[in-house]
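Readers of this paper often ask what the protein records in our data store actually look like. The remainder of this section carries one protein's record, kept here as part of the documentation.

:::
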Amino acid sequence: MRQLFKRPFLFLLIVLLLLVVVYPTLHETAGSRELFDVLRTLVLVGALRVIFVQRHQFFTGVGLAAVLVAAIWMAYLFPGPWALPLVLTLHGLATLFFLVAVGSILWTVYQRGDVSADGVAGALCAYLLLGVVFAHTYWFIEKVAPGSFRGDGEFAGELADPRKSLFALTYYSFVTLASVGANDVTPVRAAARGVTILEAICGQFYMAVLIADLIGKKVSSSPPKAGQLGNGPWAADGRVEAVSQPVR
C-alpha cells in the first residue's frame, strides 16, 4: 500500500483499470451505481495527486475536484432530476478537469530525464483519462442534441436512463479509442460522428507514436547487459577500449 502512495501514477492506473475493466463485469449487480460513483471519486482524487503541482494550481484543482465529488454524492441526497444547465456545467467542468490532467501527466512524463515504470504507468493513465474526457463529451452532445446516438437492445435502455447514460457512453468511448468498434451503438448526428472520428484518430496516434516513443526511450536508455560487454569494444565501466589490429 505504501508503494501506491510513492507512485501516484500507479495508484491512478489501478483505479482507472478497475473502472474500465472490472466494473463492467459487475454492472448488473446490486450496488453497481454506488460502486461506479466510488470509482469515479477515486479517479478524481488520483488525478488530483498527479496534477496542479504549484500551490495556486493545487488549490484551484482541489476546489474543482471538491465540486465534482460533491455533485456525485449530492445526487443521493437530491435524487430528482436536476436543472439541465447545472448538469451540463458539471459535466463541462469534469471534461476540463480531466483534459488538464491528461496534459499535465504527459508534460510530467516527457519532461523527466529517465523513463521509469511509473512514467510508463503515467502515460497509460493519460490514455485512459482521454477516454473519460471523450465519454463526458459524448454525454454532453447527447444531452444538448438528444438522439445523437442510436443504440440497440440493452445499450438503448441504458442511454435513455439518466443514471446509466454516462456509463453507456463511457463504454462507447473506450471501444472507439481502442478502434474496436461497437456494433450496438451508432453515432447519428454530425457532432457525434465528428467527435467519434477525432477520438479514433487520437487513440491510434497515442499508441503508435507517444507510447511507442516512450518505450523506445526506455529501451535505448537501458545499460548494456554484462554478457553483452565482452562481445564488443566496451569496457565493464562503459568506456570504449582500443581494439588492436594485426600488423600485416
Summary: Strands lie at 149-151, 185-187.
